[in-house]
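Repro case for the chain-ordering regression, as requested:
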Amino acid sequence: DAGITQSPRHKVTETGTPVTLRCHQTENHRYMYWYRQDPGHGLRLIHYSYGVKDTDKGEVSDGYSVSRSKTEDFLLTLESATSSQTSVYFCAISVGTREQYFGPGTRLTVT
Amino acid sequence: GENVEQHPSTLSVQEGDSAVIKCTYSDSASNYFPWYKQELGKRPQLIIDIRSNVGEKKDQRIAVTLNKTAKHFSLHITETQPEDSAVYFCAAKGVGDGNKLVFGAGTILRVKS
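-- result from build under test --
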């Protein structure tokens, strides 16, 4: 499992509330990623990080922000959750320059 | 940027038959092509990958082929078993920062016993 955990694993929140999802890794990998998974869309990259305080946008970054103050933690924040952000969120790490391994996922429901 | 298309979206096969899933990519500079298997309610798991300097790679019952000229790659599963039933995703790694992967939309494989 590449030492990746995500918290919380499930969350239900109301429209307009802020939400933060946490990804934690234990193996000091440089690259970390946040994806969302929706039926018919596969996995889409939200944001990624290539080091502490170094982050960049992916293809579906609107409405999301990220932070990485420590190598082991990568946080995804929904500043004001909307129903369109109901999804399953996966964190991933990159081992070396190619293989990516995924965390267990967080199921987020915005009501 | 990179774009990956995956076909078919669903595939049903009889146990013991072979299954083939195909993906095409748009960026000729892409150099890494992994395949993931995702069982219901679980995380995607890397099952096999291929680099652009290799045409084929096999691992027991699964194999991946790459045609760089045509910009497509395929996953082949032989002697399918019920436990092969899952969603399969292809991906391509484009050129640039971040080792970013672009994923296909997925194929639901059902193996009927």
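Ordering looks correct now. Chain A touches chain B at residues 31, 33, 40-45, 48, 50, 56, 58-59, 90, 94, 97-105 (CB under 8 Å).
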